Amino acid sequence: MRQNERYVVIEDIDFDEALRYLGYGEKAPDSKTKELLLLCESRLKKVVDGKFVYKVFDLMDGQIPNVNFKLEGQAIQRHLKNCEKVIFMCATLSGGVDLLIRKMQITGMAEAMITDSLASAMIEQVCDKAEEVILKDFDGYEHTWRFGLGYDDFPLAYQKQFLEVLDAPKRIGVCVNQSMMLTPTKSVTCVIGLGHDLQTSTVKSCDMCSFREKCQFRKEGRTCKKTAECLE
């Protein structure tokens, strides 16, 4: 088993992705929205503390020996088919972001919504960077896309156990509330498979997504940029 935790700095937030969260589609933002984006980005960067923690386990018959966590559900078993190892990962922007958004909800909802969307785009970028860092140690392996807890029939009820396996509450301050929601809210938990001759793509398609029928992007004839993160 390997384990580690790292800090991540995102210099430039993906404005295009944030605007997609805001429902802009292909429309260009007006000058006032651009100004708000820059203002909110500046405030957000001051409070973000991007970090992640992960552990890498050997797989045996689709499960992790001697670890108190069951990879339950047909979807995760399909996802990890032929995998030899599995990565458990948790990433977060930390609690300062939640506090900033709550303050903005009092002073101005427009700024709060823009900041929330920027933070959603930013946590995806942290996950991308985390995955990049982790996979450098596994050059000889193929990998799957990030599979989140609660996706398809992979039980969200296992969120607490997942965090305990990673020691995430102590190491990066990520916990889970009674509704199984992560706190801080701009946090992500996911599983990545490693192996050879895998049948799962590194990028998730709409056809594989259980949210395809209620996806706003699909209703507009578009797709989300990071399909694997559309649960957030």
End-to-end distance? 28 Å
Low-confidence stretches: 210-214, 226-232
**How would you describe the shape?**
elongated
Q: What fraction strand?
A: 15-25%
How many distinct helices?
8
Give the C-alpha Rg. 18 Å
In terms of structural class, how would the helical and strand content be classed? alpha+beta
Largest sheet: 6 strands, antiparallel
Helix percent band: 25-40%
Mean pLDDT across all residues, rounded? 88
> What is the ordering of alpha helices and beta strands?
EHHEHEHHEEHHEEEH
Counting DSSP E segments of at least 2 residues, the number of strands comes to 8
How would you describe this protein?
There is one protein chain. The protein contains eight helices and eight strands. The radius of gyration is 18 Å and the shape is elongated. 37% of the residues lie in helices and 18% in strands. α1 packs across α5. By secondary structure, the chain is α+β, with helices and mostly antiparallel strands.
